Amino acid sequence: MKKYYKGETLECGRTSMSSKKVCPHVVYLFKRGIIQPGQFLLDYGCGKYARNTIWLAKQGVRVYAYDPFWGTHIADCGWAHISDQIPEFPYFDIIMTCYVLNVVKKQTERNIIEFAKNNAPQQIHIVRNRDLIDLAYNSINRKDKTVMEFCTNQGIKPKATKQFAKKLAVHGFQTSRGFQRLTDFSGMEFVLKETYNSKVFNVRGNK
Asked: Is the pTM of the predicted complex or chain greater than 0.85?
């Protein structure tokens, strides 16, 4: 098995959170003063309901909502609606992703991080964590149809071990709700907060 999945993009917006409630980690970041009123923030991959965008805007943050799957094809409309375009000459204080990098393949993750590096002095990434290893492990043990088909199509022989489950999680795998992958921020990792289900990365000074 290759370290990372390199096939076609499998995530097409299906992993967008169905809940309209703000992510608790975003509230935490605001209360800690890491995100502040008046700052320009790009919510990259904001999702169908732009739940974090709406909440942050109510707190006085100037948020641009961008999502390539759920956005409207109108330039600069992200200040009031969800846009599928980013301003041509953007300047943001912060570029934030929330459960985005864990649903895209490694090269896409690199592209997003590089874009953030070039267009903001600070980037925040909220991603899934060790729960993805358990998801892979449990899916293999119960012979989940979607996961097993993915392994077959990729020429991967699944093993019902935690070691294999971790490798599969890092590689990336297809679930019934879309693609999932355990992100790897080697070389730029600063973990602000970590739980079983998630990690919050806060990276400054890249621009």
From this structure: yes
